[in-house]
Amino acid sequence: MRRGFLGGTFNPPHLGHVRAAAKAAKELGLEALYVIPAGIPPHKELPEGGAAGDQRLEMARLAFRDIPGLEVLDWEIRRAGKSYTADTVERLLSEDPEGELWMLCGTDMFETLPDWYRGDWLLRTLHVAAYPRKAGEEARIDALAEEYRREYGARTRRIGVRALDVSSTELRELLHRGKGASLLPKEVYRYILKNRLYAVRPEPDALWELVRPWYKKSRIPHVEGCRRTAVALARRWGADELDAENAAILHDITKKMPVEEQLQYCEKRGNINFSYHPEYEAALHAFSGAAAAALEFGVSPEVEDAIRWHTTGRADMSLLEKIIWLADYIEPGRTTPGVEEVRRLAESDLDEALRRALKNSLRHLEEQSWTPHPATREALAFLCRGEVGK
Ligand SMILES: [Fe+2]
Ligand SMILES: [Fe+2]
Q1: How far is the CA of 296 from the centre of ligand 2 (A)?
Q2: Which ligand is in closest contact with the Cα of 224?
Q3: Which pLDDT tens digit goes with each residue over 33-79?
Q4: How far is the CA of 216 from the centre of ligand 2 (A)?
């Protein structure tokens, strides 16, 4: 039988890995291909704050699930002590001693192969398929292949695959800066967000793609308007633009969700100082939205708070909270009486804009004989105290 395997830390698995595996399986005519995430790799120390073994295993399952005949094996993750490819190869060979076994590896691994534990044995025993990790590495692979053929009689082959010009280290760095989603399979990116791996910050466009189905079609223009307004306000007032954009994208995500489900999110999140009461139903989606944003998309506590207080406001709001509250109030689709004035004020005096908008909201609620949430009165009282003190 002709089988192949691809090892690595997969921290995280990215499109470069997936493309190489798919191409190799096809070019080599493999009947089976195994992806084997390493336990404690002998070649490099795992960075701190990275993913645990089980998480890397799960990400690998998500990343490679569309390749036919591919199986993700947990052998090295489960094995105590350091992972040695030689041990894995022995086990694979024992299953099919007469078969042909191919090892897939990127240029960096291919380069160091002779220095691995029992490297010369590996080079004599295995077939090796190397693929470029970065553009322009083809010549280097061919030169090494020639050298290994001469020295070890190695049977090697270069896999032609479009390289991904990024290392896992660089990729983790990108994720932390709110970028890099396009380099990952969608499901892997979703998993990283949900589990908040690598201190990831959502990339707005990728987040929007994931979140869109949560919204009713009719709400989309409001969220898009809110997103643009939040970014503009963040830029004007020196807040974190990425946080503002992500908070706006997520702020109404539970709006079409049944009350029961919303309450489940609140309960699961567990840190919400909010006893649900039907008279405050309008505020529930903000609390459940914050909980869902944290649980499903791994947002930071600052973003979670901005979503939680976007309907009621509260005393002593952070800059980001004010921006999201106001963006929701003044986005271009809003036609509430007095909104024009608040829009103008938001350019020159953020607190005054908020004060004016809170007053408008409270008046509107009174006119409708609705009970305002206590946090809204507290928000206004806090801002007015500041006014007196000026
Ligand atoms: Fe809302
Ligand atoms: Fe909204």
Answers
A1: 19
A2: 2
A3: 999 999 865 555 556 557 889 999 999 999 999 999 899 999 999 88
A4: 12
Residues near ion ligand 1 (CB < 5 Å) are 252
pLDDT digits (tens, 9 = 90+) for 195-245: 999 999 999 999 999 999 999 999 999 999 999 999 999 999 999 999 999
Apex CA 247: angle with CA 241 and CA 249, to 5°? 100
Ligand 1 centroid – CA 254 distance (Å)? 9
Report the C-alpha gap between 323 and 340 in whole angstroms.
16
Tokens 């001469």 correspond to what residue?
150
- Say whether 203-389 and 2-176 share the same fold: no
Q: Backbone phi, then psi, for 283, in 5-degree steps?
A: -90, -15
Q: Cα separation of 25 and 5, whole Å?
A: 10
Domain ranges of the chain: 2-176, 203-389
CATH class name, domain 2-176: alpha beta
Indicate the fold that domain 203-389 takes in CATH: Hypothetical protein af1432 (1.10.3210)
> What is the distance in A from the centroid of ligand 1 to the CA of 190?
24
